[in-house]
Design a protein that fits this description.
This protein has 332 residues and is of the alpha+beta class. It has 10 helices and 8 strands.
Length: 332
């Protein structure tokens, strides 16, 4: 009869064996199984999997989801012999679990060393200034080269990003001095351009002001000349109208005198007296003028003057036959 303790041992061993034959794989993971130390292509998929106890053994279990590989900073030398420190981040995933385990011993270490080597190679092809401006091109080159290099390991590199590119302290100081000098240079250029534009605008404004002033003076001179011309025309018209009015007044006065002489024979002697008196007063005024010195007057000339005026008036019969016309006398 079997000892109860032995039954207990058998049950425990059997339970452990049965437990070891059942494997549960989480979603997103895969596992490789070797039988008697040899891989025969058996792979555990996500879910419940049955294995043969003692004969089957899980040798590699890894996720097939995308992973992030953090590359530590490393020293690089650019083609212009400048020391810089570069770090990066790599996104990758296992596409073939069998290759990832059997083609390389330590996949992650191999990935890190491969990325470091490629970064040093690419940084050595560039100058210092290009490392900052051509970062996207460097990322694309690293992605292409790493994807080709890791394909035999069953790995797919999906993205490579350079995070920090840090020059040495001496280089940083030199770059700061260079940037400071560049800023001063740009400031001086902008200042000179501003002064030049200001001078150009000022000269242009002065020229336009002079042109406007000359045009204003020209218009003022034209308006003044037109005003003077109009004034002269108006003055001439006024003088002409005044002469016409005076001539008309003289004509009417002579007609009145002629009518008076026609109607009153005594008025002829009175007219002679008035003419003689006016003649004497005119001589008196001429003699009292500042520009006159000596005036000679012949009293005998007064009757002759009166006779001349009488001849201008005409005889009584001509006055009776036609009215007195000043313009006809002037034409005579």
């Amino acid at each position: 009869m079997i000892n109860p303790f032995a039954w207990l041992i058998i049950l425990v061993l059997g339970g452990s064996t049965m437990a070891s034959s059942i494997k549960i794989v989480n979603q997103g993971n895969e596992a490789l199984v070797e039988r008697l130390g040899k891989y025969s292509g058996k792979k555990l998929e996500p879910g419940l999997n049955i294995m043969i106890p003692v004969l089957d053994r899980v040798v590699f279990k890894e996720t097939i989801r995308e992973k992030v590989l953090d590359i530590p900073p490393q020293k690089c030398i650019t083609c212009d012999n400048v020391s810089i420190s570069v770090d990066a981040v790599v996104y990758w995933r296992i596409m073939d679990m069998e290759k990832a385990y059997y083609k390389v011993e330590d996949l992650q270490a191999a990935m890190v060393n491969l990325v470091l080597t490629q970064i040093r190679s690419e940084m050595g092809k560039l100058e210092l200034d290009q490392t900052f401006t051509a970062r996207s091109e460097v990322n694309e080159t690293l992605l292409r080269e790493l994807d080709i290099a890791t394909d035999p390991w069953g790995v797919k590199v999906t993205r490579v990003e350079l995070r920090d590119i840090v020059p040495s302290k001496a280089v940083q100081d030199s770059m700061e001095l260079q940037m400071s000098a560049e800023r001063r240079k740009r400031a001086a250029i902008l200042t000179s351009e501003g002064e030049r534009e200001s001078a150009v605008n000022s000269a242009r404004g002065n020229a336009e002001a002079q042109v406007l002033d000359a045009e204003a003076r020209q218009k003022a001179a034209i308006l003044d000349a037109e005003a003077q011309q109009k004034a002269i025309v108006l003055k001439a018209q006024a003088e002409r109208q005044q002469s016409v009015l005076k001539a008309q007044a003289t004509s009417e006065a002579l007609q009145i005198v002629a009518k008076t002489l026609k109607n009153d024979p005594v008025a002829r002697d009175a007219l002679q007296f008035l003419l003689a008196q006016n003649y004497l007063e005119m001589g008196k005024e001429i003699g009292s003028s500042d520009s006159s010195k000596v005036m000679f007057m012949d009293p005998r000339a007064i009757p002759a003057t009166i006779e001349g005026i009488r001849s201008m008036v005409g005889d009584r019969e001509s006055l009776d036959s036609e009215p007195f016309n000043f313009e006809s006398h002037n034409n005579r």
